[in-house]
Amino acid sequence: MFKKVSLLFLFSVGFLMLKAQEKIPFRITKHNNIIVKTLINDKDSLDLMFQIAMEGGSISPERQRKADHIIFKDEISENNTVKIGKLIIKNVQFFDNELTGHEADGKIGTGIFAGKTFKIDYDNNQFVIYDEKPDLKGYESMPLFSENGQFYIVADNVIDNEQQEVYFLLQSGYSGGILYSNKFADGKELDKKLKITGEKTLKNSAGQSVITKQGVLPFLKLGNLVLKDVSAGFFAGDLKTQKVSYFGADLLRRFIWIFDAERKTVYFKPSKYFKEPYYKLN
Q1: SS3 sequence, the chain?
Q2: Contact 156/165 with Cβ under 8 angstroms?
Q3: Are 272 and 122 in contact (CB under 8 A)?
Q4: Which residues, 6 or more positions from 247, have their beta carbon under 8 angstroms from its beta carbon?
Q5: From CA 254, how far away is CA 231, in angstroms rounded?
Q6: Beta-strand relationship, 178-179 and 225-237
Q7: pLDDT tens readout for residues 80-123
Q8: Which candidate, 232, 234, 233, 229, places its Cα nearest to that of 218?
């Protein structure tokens, strides 16, 4: 009898171990950036900002902590080992001298989840890495488009009572909501059609102006979910370099996201931040 119970117990424990998932805690800054604590090459303890728009990592020239054991050659460091909680990732590439978000020593990208389904759980401040398909009850889904390690989704924008489909780059390093591409902003005359709430002008050494404008998008529709009066920015002036539209960190935090292992589908549902006031860019 004891042997049978023992075998049953061991089988149950083994089954639970197979079903167990890796969880990585993170914190969210007041600027909506995700910060994870990492140990690089068993020596350097760094706070890195999770950047969903990259695969590898980078180190900031404005870092607060030492990164003496990340060896760079021509501003690239290969074959690094990164520990995040119990997770160990080998052969991580870091770039040097890339600026990052507030409170971070650098950035770390989605390569830490390579080949795995993973969740960004803003309700519980954690990533969850799955070995098999998770429970998707309550989630909506949409196609995920990948290009050069970056992810794009499609959302509907209601501007001047017209619905416009936009491809957005998921960009967790941008603290705000939407940042439109120059092509979309100019083509849809956003300067005239959006309610403008703020404007800043900067000039370079040649006297050319960069004008950033903040406006209000009446409705943004993601699947069957609708966000109202969304903060939306765009560039005007002489210099216009925004080639793609951003779905920024202030919008990302309003959902819980699950990315499939093949990076072809993303699942989402509202988080506790869904109806929170929008982030105001300085």
Answers
A1: CHHHHHHHHHHHHHHHHHHCCEEEECEECCCCCEEEEEEECCCEEEEEEECCCCCCEEECCCCCCCCCCCCCECCEEEEEEEEECCEEEEEEEEEECCCCCCCCCEEECHHHHCCCEEEEECCCCEEEEECCCCCCCCCEEEECEEECCEEEEEEEEEECCEEEEEEEEEECCCCCCEECCHHHHHHCCHHHHCEEEEEEEEECCCCCEEEEEEEEEEEEEECCEEEEEEEEEEEEECCCCCCCEEEEHHHHCCEEEEECCCCCEEEEEECCCCCCCCCCCC
A2: yes
A3: yes
A4: 153, 155, 168, 169, 170, 171, 178
A5: 13
A6: parallel
A7: 999 998 899 999 999 999 999 899 999 999 999 999 999 999 99
A8: 229
Residue 115's CB: how many other CB atoms inside 10 A? 8
Residue 35 has which token pair? 């910060």
Q: Does the reported pTM lie above 0.85?
A: yes
Express each pLDDT in 211-267 by its tens digit. 889 999 999 999 999 999 999 999 987 777 899 999 999 999 999 999 999 999 999
Segment 10-28, tens digit of pLDDT:
334 433 333 448 999 999 9
